[in-house]
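pinging the channel bc i need a second pair of eyes. not urgent but kinda urgent?? the chain im working w is below, pasted from the shared doc
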Amino acid sequence: MSDRNGFFNGWGIHFDPVTGKPEGDPFQVMSFHSPDLMVADLITDVGLSLTEHKLIVTGAQRSGSICLLDNVDPDAVLHGF
């Protein structure tokens, strides 16, 4: 896992099955680039499972909003209504 592009993505590297040593350059195996669907930004919250032909990763959706309240009594807000 690496967040080199701003979002966590999975990377792989080929290895020699006889020596167990890596061969070649790392390559990206997932492409998450948006908060609409991403790997959690706390890597400890990420679940990974690997089989011979599949990589399973937990994903997350992030959203946010800003609320604007008109005609609010500042005294009520400051004093807990």
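so The chain has a mean pLDDT of 75. and The longest strand covers residues 22-28. — does that match what u expected or am i reading it wrong
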